[in-house]
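During the first year of the project, the team set up a workflow for recording each protein of interest as an amino acid sequence followed immediately by a discrete structure-token representation. This format lets reviewers and collaborators read both layers of information side by side without switching files. As required by the reporting guidelines, we include two representative entries from the current panel. The first entry is reproduced here exactly as it appears in our internal archive.
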Amino acid sequence: MRRQVVDNQPTISKITMKLDGVVVELSKGGVVVNGQTVTLPFSLSGVSIVKTTSNVKVVAKLGLVAVWNKDDSLMIEMNEKYRNQTCGLCGDFNEVQTYNEFIINGGELSSSDYGNLWKLDGPLEVCEEPTLTSVESCGDEEFCQQLFSSAAFSSCTNYLDMDAFIKTCLADLCHCDNSTNSFCLCNTISEYSRQCVHAGGKPQQWRTEQFCYKICPYNMEHQECGSPCVDTCSNPEASQLCEDHCTDGTCAGGQWACTDKDCPGTCSVEGGSHINTYDGKAYTFHGDCSYILTKKCNGSEFTVLGDIVKCGLTDTETCMRAVTLALSSRSTLK
């Protein structure tokens, strides 16, 4: 992750991912895979990349999901099989918040010291050490606590560590010269709201005309998507949930009506034997023949055939030798 500060606001300008031989680079200028600019949606070797209104989402079959809001928020979801095997800013995934990453030789590291352990200088630059400000001397802790314990976030308290966000709020106020101007706090509160939704909570509208206000093109509300008919860009967490469920709709009479959108299914054959169905069922099959990969059961619009053959010394070494697509127009592609 390449972090930069632009106009006194932190932003994530670039994300580089190496996923089982596939190199994915995300930036505000576009998406690059293995050195080539690609258009979304995109899929290659078990890695799929999709773009929604507010996010870019990368899904790797090895067990990782990354969601970037194209600005200042990146979420990584890791499969359970990697528990106790990770390192980096995201920690060691052992369900203990302090051990072992924040403890070295019996002493506890500060957040700054721990973060600098994972700093990578670029080939043509040396990252500067940030100027640290004492958090204890900044802001009003009671003010920050009231922000995250307000009625709008009542459903979040059982899901998130409020104390960690209160500390971040105090740090934000340091950069605001001890002022409660909303622009210094909006990103932190937005992240709290996003994480609450992801954890299972349902935050209500927390923006007002005086605090973190945004002007948006239309309103929304839905039981599953979020709070009372609020602006979609004011509540990106809510609109994202609708997008994830392949729904769309309008807000009329104070109610958000979701309707189904086109939500394509994907089937894949990896390595000549590992098959993933449209419904997400993964299984392994070693064949030595031609097989119907997919077709319209009651009709002849299309048929896709695959030749799975032995390509090694054992029965479990198989390859996809050829693929044939037959269309109702009598055209056949191999």
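The second entry, processed by the same pipeline in the following quarter, appears below.
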Amino acid sequence: MLWCRPDVLLTLWICPLTCLMMSPCPPGCCCPGPGFLVLCESLGLRSLPRSVPLSTSVLSVARNQLCNVDHLLWSFSGLQELSLSHNLLARFPRGLPPSLESLLLQENRITYITTGALRQLRNLTRLDLEDNRIRTIQPAALLSLKKLQILTLKGNKLTRFPLNLPPSLTHLDLSGNCISSLDLPSLSTLINLQVLQINSNCLRTVPDNTFDYLPRLRSVDLTDNLWACECDILYLYRWLLSGRLKMATHLVCKEPIHLAQRLLLNLSVVSICPRVLQPHKLDLESAATNEPTEQDRMRKLAKEIIDSEEVTTKDPSQTRVLHYSLESLNYEDCLSQNQTQSIDPPHLKTTSLPKEEQLCRENTTAQRNGTSAVGTQSWLSTNRNDLLSNTHVLTPDSATIISLLAVSCVLLALVMLAVLILLKKVLVRQQRVAPTVEGSGA
């Protein structure tokens, strides 16, 4: 923000004293020094003050009610910084002086950016358009800004990545929009880009090689998007595992349904893209032209990820996963990874998430009870039909158990009833015999 700069804060501190001594100055504004800084904020202005000195280099008319300032500032040939934030501007102001280096327009009502509006601003290094209503930016609207370094378009209504951005950009903020895809040609030209914020958008995947042509990129924010954790996301998955940049890696899957709300980096390659381990089928057309098929590309990418993610020991049943520690990986996350990493690839079959979690927990229980690792591996390597049949043999069905218990209860009741009847007959017989015995004795 303009008022966060040290020199501005200093002038604001001494402003009450200096404003009494300096003139001319617009009524209600603060002018610490001639030709330096003019602050006309929160005054309810509907038009620019007329008495602003033409030598002003920093002007702020933020938090007013300005609706149109077209061609009103052209005569300020030395103006370097201008703040028009928190006003009622419905379009990008026209006729601004070419000397501008910083332009703040956040929280207005701008809906589109045209090429002609910025054509003269060749010295602009910072442009802030945060929290407007921008839906459209003409393809060449920003290309003429050869010195632009910081561009903020946060909190607008963009549905696509801006085209033809100037290569001079170092910071680009596109968060809080509706962008559903990245334009690779436009992004690859940003060779000086250092910080990219595109969180809180509608991205589902990232095209291959998206970040490979950005040599100075050091920070990326991709959180809160609509990530589809399928085969097309393997490039982003591998790029995140590389850990070369400072960025948030807690990307949450939204699709497919069985992986929803799961962290992308807690998944294995097989759970993201099961077809990478399916039997290879040659595409006749691709084979004739010696071009790799889509399946070949997925296999190659998956192999690179697995090679960088795991280190296999002499015992093939034991693997050590890199990039994790006890602080970043808990017990439940470990179980969710084991459900695919411990399966023998040639016999892998896709199953639903609840069944995989149940099998993984049964496998863990068996290992605790003394089952050998080799036996567990062979159990998980069987096909789905054998697995289901073995499960029925080893684990009784709950309905069968209930039926057996019911039958046992009925049999027990019948036995008890028979015993009671037998006891009753014995007692009756004894009562009949007892009087006879007494009579004979008399």
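For the second entry, the following points were noted during internal review. Residues 1-109 form a domain with the Leucine-rich repeat, LRR (right-handed beta-alpha superhelix) fold (CATH 3.80.10.10). Residues 8-22, 280-288, 310-335, 340-396 have pLDDT under 50 and may be disordered. Both points are flagged for discussion at the upcoming steering committee meeting.
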